[in-house]
């Protein structure tokens, strides 16, 4: 009897060993051939379905878009990827060249990416990009540079994630309105300003320029435009434009409006170099709330800025891309609010 039990036990052990070996073998085989198709729904990270996300940024050398793309990658990898799905994110530099960027998108299409996130060099390229993606049936999420409504209507697997630039312009104007004498620091009865613009092809630049001033005139404040020049979102250009304006108009300038913080940092350098003092004899406002600018706002060296929420926008863009991959119905526009930042 004892012998029979020992024999049966050994049989059970042997069987479980064999089963163990064979299941290990099949795991290895699964891991070896990573399957990108939608029906691969393995339950370990190694078996996860892989979703390929192609991101193109208009140029890497942009302070705000650098924070944005870092956040986007981080969110896809750390928060959206899990045991069931891995988001493989490839981010490329459009180098401020639309032809180059269109090629990058073509490569994403040829490599069968599942979704494309595009920060266009030129918003006017949207229709070409949409048609390319439509032919390949690959959804596209535009970020930061808003295409026209007609373009967004070309296909239902297209969406835009951004912020309403009118709101940021209005907030800049309100920051100035709330200052002593509504920003007329030299007391000559009008707010004389320098407008340092981003790339004028971009609605963010157009709306911020228009609505910052409108917020003042709507409240009955008299204004005078001394200079309006494009600084292409660039710190060095912001510095040059402001330096030239200070040389030309001196104490005639009450306010320097910059369409973004990078240019406000340049303006800040020019104002210091000219021996002027923000908060005492001149005011300076930007948009984005870059860390460096926020600390200048705290110390009073920059009057104010407006938070352009790159974290909120990056997360929304990624969430919308996921919806698109999952075949959910997309809205045309997803908008994240701006927030006013003053001392
Ligand atoms: C930001 C700028 C940035 C631009 C790029 C704007 O929304 O405020 O800082 O340079 O987007 O398109």
> How are the strands of the largest sheet arranged?
2-1-3-4-5-11
N- to C-terminal separation? 89 Å
Strand content range: 15-25%
CATH superfamily of the largest domain: Response regulator
Structural class: alpha/beta
Task: Name the ligand types.
Answer: beta-D-glucopyranose
In DSSP terms (H or I, runs of 4 or more residues), the helix count works out at 11
Q: Secondary-structure blueprint of this entry?
A:
Blueprint lengths: L1 H31 L16 E9 L5 H18 L4 E9 L4 H13 L4 E4 L7 H11 L3 E4 L5 H4 L5 E5 L2 H13 L13 E7 L5 H15 L5 E8 L4 H15 L5 E4 L2 H13 L9 E3 L5 H9 L4 E4 L2 H16 L7 E3 L3 E4 L1
Parallel strand pairs: 1-2, 1-3, 3-4, 4-5, 5-11, 6-7, 6-8, 8-9
Antiparallel strand pairs: 10-12
Beta-D-glucopyranose binds next to helix 2.
């Amino acid at each position: 009897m004892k012998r029979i039990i020992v024999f049966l036990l050994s049989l059970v052990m042997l069987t479980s060993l064999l089963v163990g070996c064979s299941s290990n073998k099949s795991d290895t085989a699964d891991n070896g051939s990573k399957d990108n198709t939608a029906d691969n729904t393995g339950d370990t990270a190694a078996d996860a379905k892989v979703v390929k996300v192609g991101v193109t940024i208009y140029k890497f050398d942009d302070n705000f878009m650098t924070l944005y793309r870092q956040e986007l990658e981080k969110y896809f990898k750390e928060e959206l990827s899990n045991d069931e799905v891995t988001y493989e994110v490839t981010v490329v530099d459009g180098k401020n060249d639309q032809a180059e960027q269109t090629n990058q998108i073509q490569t994403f299409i040829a490599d069968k990416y599942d979704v494309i996130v595009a920060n266009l060099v030129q918003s006017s390229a949207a229709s070409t990009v949409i048609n390319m993606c439509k032919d390949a049936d690959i959804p596209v999420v535009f970020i930061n540079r808003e295409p026209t409504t007609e373009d967004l209507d070309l296909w239902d697997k297209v969406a835009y994630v951004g912020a309403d630039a009118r709101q940021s312009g209005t907030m800049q104007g309100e920051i100035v309105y709330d200052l002593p004498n509504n920003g007329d620091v030299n007391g000559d009865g009008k707010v004389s300003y320098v407008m340092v613009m981003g790339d004028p092809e971009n609605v963010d630049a157009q709306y911020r320029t228009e609505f910052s001033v409108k917020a003042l005139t709507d409240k009955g404040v008299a204004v005078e435009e001394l200079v309006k020049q494009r600084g292409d979102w660039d710190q060095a250009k912001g510095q040059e434009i402001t330096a030239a304006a200070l040389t030309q108009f001196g104490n005639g300038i009450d306010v320097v409006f910059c369409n973004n913080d990078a240019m406000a940092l340049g303006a800040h350098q020019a104002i210091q170099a000219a021996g002027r003092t923000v908060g005492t004899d001149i005011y300076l406002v930007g948009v984005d709330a870059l860390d460096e600018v926020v600390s200048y706002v705290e110390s009073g060296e920059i009057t104010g800025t407006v938070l352009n929420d790159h974290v909120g926008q990056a997360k929304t863009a990624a969430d919308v891309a996921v919806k698109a991959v999952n075949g959910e119905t997309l809205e045309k526009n997803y908008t994240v609010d701006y927030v006013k930042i003053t001392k």
